[in-house]
Amino acid sequence: MTSPEGIVPTEAHVPFDMADAATAVVDAAGTVVGWTAATERLLGYPAAEVLNKPASMLLASPEDAAKARNITDQCRNQGSWGGLVTLGHRSGHRVEAGVRVSGISGISDFCGRGCWLISAIDLSKIPSWALSGSLLEAFLVRSPIGMAVLSPDLRYVWMNDMLERYGGVPREQRLGRRMAESLPGLDTGALEAQMRQVLETGKPIVDYEYRGWTMADPYREHAYSTSFFRLDNADGHPVGVCYMGMDVTDRWRARERLALLNEASAKIGSTLDVLRTAQELAEFAVPRLADFVTVDLLESVLHGEEPVAPSQHTLPAFRRAGQASIHEGTPESIAALGDPVSISPTSPFASCFFSGEALLDPAMDVSVTAWTGDTPDPARARKVREFGMRSLMVTPIRARGTILGVASFVRSREPDPFEADDLLLAEELVARAGLCVDNARRYTREHTTALALQRSLMPHNLPGSPVLEVASRYLPTVRDGVGGDWFDVIPLSGARVALAVGDVVGHGINAAASMGRLRTAVHTLADMDLPPEELLAHLDDLVIRLGEERVGEEDIAAALIGATFLYAIYDPVTRRCTMARAGHPVPALVAPDGEVTFPSLPAGPPLGLGSLPFESAELELREGSLIALYTDGLIETCDQDIDVGLARLSNALAQPGLPLEDVCSTVVDTLLTSPPSDDVALLLARTHSLSPGHVASWDLPTDPAVVASARSLTARQLAEWGLDELTTTSELIVSELVTNAIRHGTGPIRLRLIRHDVLICEVADASNTSPRLRHARTTDEGGRGLFLVAQLTRRWGTRYTEGGKLIWAEQDLPAPT
């Protein structure tokens, strides 16, 4: 026989019901003297093979003989023994049995001496015997799961020890009573409804969860999981309902925290704005975790700069980036959003920042002492007393190994102090928010850099001109901030003005840089006085070449290739406007009477595709006409067709007589009813013509003698305009240009003077040969003409026309007296 190691065998170890046990009688010498049919069924030995033989033959192995002698000694000393024994079946297999040994007295006539009654039960059989008597009582009463039985009218008739502890009310005060009388902190109505359903249907309800408090812990909410089932008698009639419940507060809190973190991922970091992200953290934590929350960030973080490395001696500058409270207006705060925050070097805030570790002050003893100690912080101490703040957590806001700021969580109305689990939750929330803050900081830095780059590349002041009144708007997308939309106004020779608008693919620094490269290229090509279709062809070649140079840099190449562009030249002398476009939206033309049209203009492919040639169209504009150039972000939105956008633009532009700036505002307000999803560039230009009195022109023969006549015509015209101060210089310029046209060009020759904001002198001939400025040697008799022209004028140049070329020179007008 064997017993569990370290356990003294007693009857209590085998609390079995032995009514149907296999029984044998063994005398004091260990000889079997009694054998029952039940024992034969258990071990397979008939009585003839066992009687008068040693009981040790029934053991599973000979090694158990020594242990059997020890058990025999204990039986003699204690009078009985109970335990688990491994017996040997006649067929050779082992039988695990529960055994009880009891002394027998008064039957000496049967044994002739003292005997022992041995009872055994096969443990492998259905253990219904194990749920009777004292074991059943121990099982129910001492179960770690709360159990109770209620009568059909839902009154307690029995409960175990665990349920008594859960309720916090003695058992005798609950038996015979309803749940509501002893459980005021629970929704007993809902619980009784569940039990009535079980009584009516007979179907059990499993894992019904609810929350509340009991007298065992009246100041803290707990979660419980309870199952209900009906109790029926032998006739199948219900005699009561049983419920079993357990405290699942830890599981519930873990699930709540997980749900809270999932919700936080969706609600914190919805934008790439540092202040908004900090405020989202504060608003999310109140009242879910705390009654008052502040988020203070390093000042450098708010500017998008790299965070200042923490020092053990000096606190950097902090600003209040977010705060929320259960009280309207956050009266607990000592600073408004955006204000600098003063911090005591001995405060929990400073300790958290210097150490980089979260701090928990459940009763705020340490915090109040720090704020009222050697380096007091009277403002915070006063707020603590005023609002009854009783518990504090301080957590560093960290991202990628760098501290960005500190978040503080305070409880004032909630009676329970913060616990270690609350601190873990706060750290997880702040960690997620920290990554969002850092992403927003990085975006702010990139956005600021891109915006500075774009502003440096965009025209700061559009050049004014008596012949062209301009107004503009640029609105970056709220999603990406900076893009590649741009516009420009470029003064050309002959009082002409070029209007340009373009749209580079993408957003960010690459788009802004690509826009700058295109704008620079357009200025360079515009200085060559190329017609619009030729300028677009040169620009297309440039984009193709730049794309080939950027192989492997897809972002930069993609920003250039596919860009759209429109270029227009307005001549105030002829009132003609020549336009060409590369995949860009058609401009709008507004007549002086308010009629809006969209001219038929060859589309042309976007830049960098190199597939089709570009074509231009020439339009004659009436005095006071309006040209509207724009990018597709103005007319295209995700919720409307482009035709709808063009119709709305047409209605907004039909404002005759309205100042140009007001027209700009009307267009933007009408078409952009919500923050734009794409960049928007708008350029409006109202045209004016030069009156015939400001232009004088003459056709000259190709005769050297005509040079003197040209000087005389010039002097007479300048006297008529009141520009006598420019006569001598202008005569010399005209003389040199006309002489060059006669000597190096071919007829006919045309001389034109234009009085604009400068005095313009133009000499045209039928030759395509461009003059070249050179420095003549001292022995040369000629070659100094253009050099003198360059010295006497503010600028000069050449442009090609349909009939040849034209050389022009500009002089500043004298200051008015």
Plain-language structure description:
It is a single chain. With 817 residues, this protein is of the alpha+beta class. 33% of the residues lie in helices and 27% in strands. It is built from 22 helices and 31 strands. Strands 13-12-11-16-15-14 form a six-stranded antiparallel sheet, with helices on both faces. The protein has a five-stranded antiparallel sheet with strand order 2-1-5-4-3. A five-stranded antiparallel sheet has the order 7-6-10-9-8, sandwiched between helices. A hairpin with a 5-residue loop joins strand 22 (588-590) and strand 23.
Topology:
Elements (H helix, E strand, L loop, with lengths): L21 E6 L4 E4 L1 H7 L3 H4 L14 H14 L1 E9 L5 E11 L3 H4 L3 E8 L10 H9 L4 E5 L5 E4 L1 H7 L20 H14 L3 E8 L9 E11 L5 E10 L1 H19 L6 H12 L6 E7 H4 L15 E8 L14 E2 L6 H8 L3 E3 L3 H7 L6 H10 L3 E9 L2 E10 L8 H38 L10 E8 L7 E9 L5 E11 L1 H19 L4 H18 L4 H7 L3 E8 L4 E7 L5 E3 L5 E2 L18 E5 L5 E5 L11 H12 L6 H12 L8 E8 L7 E6 L5 H16 L5 H18 L4 E7 L2 E8 L19 H8 L2 E7 L2 E9 L5
Antiparallel strand pairs: 1-2, 1-5, 3-4, 4-5, 6-7, 6-10, 8-9, 9-10, 11-12, 11-16, 12-13, 14-15, 15-16, 17-26, 18-19, 19-20, 20-21, 21-24, 22-23, 22-25, 25-26, 27-28, 28-29, 29-31, 30-31
